[in-house]
Design the sequence.
């Protein structure tokens, strides 16, 4: 099989597209022939050695795929060869095949194309978990989403609307804001043209944000940290801007709000029943048309470097997807 291999931590350009041996399932495992793989910002951090998880090298990046089961290992029940599935693999997704435990696959409804299914899991599942379990967002509350045109930002806009929030989208260009608006955002803020703190204050009639879904870090995080409502929840999703901010804890004390970390990968391990229920709800919402996946571009697997560079450069509206050449 063909795969993208990270031999050592380093620049994205060092990734190698190469031939590897075909995979065989072990006990309790299945082999999935990959039809599409989602590309995520953490993938780029991972290959550079900048992510929380640092796998042994060499490894194949990619944690979300969609495809069909091609082989079943001993003890696997309730699945069959040829079945369409979504697979959560943590590693191994940038390839033509992946081996996963049967506990890490979900049946894929026929209505959902492989390209969209592969891009549904990480972005939407992160946003869903963040807003549901971590923020416990309520109808009528105000939700600020930074990086609102990216994959997980758009997911937060859609899910926030489904959960009854008023959604304020924060982006760097008019084009990105238009994408956020198309996906349900109520209020738009271009932080390159407006003071973000003042704009949030104005948009919330001086109250501040009940929930902030913060993906960018740096100055954007600092502005949001000064724009929270009493009993607000500032969700720390990631640092797409490249700077991990330091937080003055006196702000939380004086303004009476919580800073809440969101790490979806750990959530799937610590709360597997909640994760399974979340995914069932997400897939139901998708079939009902309440959420959707916006695929910016679908590239051949051999172009994974190009896809990652576009994601890391924050040039994507929605999600990037890879398909076998």
Sequence:
């Amino acid at each position: 099989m063909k795969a993208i291999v990270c031999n050592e931590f380093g620049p994205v350009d060092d990734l190698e597209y190469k031939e590897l041996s075909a995979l065989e399932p072990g006990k309790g495992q299945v082999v999935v022939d990959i039809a599409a793989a989602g590309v995520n910002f953490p993938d780029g951090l991972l290959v550079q050695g900048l992510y929380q998880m640092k796998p042994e090298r060499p490894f194949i990046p990619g944690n979300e795929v969609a495809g069909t089961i091609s082989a079943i290992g001993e003890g696997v029940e309730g699945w069959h060869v040829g079945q369409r599935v979504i697979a959560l693999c943590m590693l191994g997704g940038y390839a033509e095949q992946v081996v996963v435990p049967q506990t890490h696959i979900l049946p894929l409804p026929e209505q959902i194309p492989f390209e969209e299914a592969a891009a549904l899991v990480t972005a939407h599942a992160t946003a869903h978990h963040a807003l549901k379990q971590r923020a416990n967002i309520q109808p009528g509350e105000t939700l600020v989403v930074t990086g609102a045109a990216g994959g997980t930002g758009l997911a937060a806009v859609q899910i926030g609307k489904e959960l009854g929030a008023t959604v304020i989208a924060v982006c760097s260009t008019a084009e990105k804001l238009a994408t956020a608006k198309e996906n349900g955002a109520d209020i738009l803020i271009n932080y390159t043209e407006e003071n973000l703190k003042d704009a949030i204050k104005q948009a919330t009639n001086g109250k501040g944000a009940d929930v902030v879904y913060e993906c960018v870090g740096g100055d954007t995080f600092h502005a949001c940290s000064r724009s929270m409502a009493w009993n607000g929840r500032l969700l720390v999703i990631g640092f797409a801007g490249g700077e991990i901010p330091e937080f003055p804890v006196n702000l939380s004390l004086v303004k009476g709000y919580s800073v809440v970390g969101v790490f979806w990968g750990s959530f799937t391990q610590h709360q597997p029943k909640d994760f399974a229920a979340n995914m069932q709800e997400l897939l139901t919402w998708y079939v009902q048309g309440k959420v959707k996946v916006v695929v910016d571009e679908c590239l051949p697997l051999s172009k994974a470097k190009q896809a990652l560079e576009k994601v890391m450069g924050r040039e994507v509206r929605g999600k990037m997807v890879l398909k076998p050449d």
Observations:
- The chain has two domains: 2-108+294-323, 123-265.
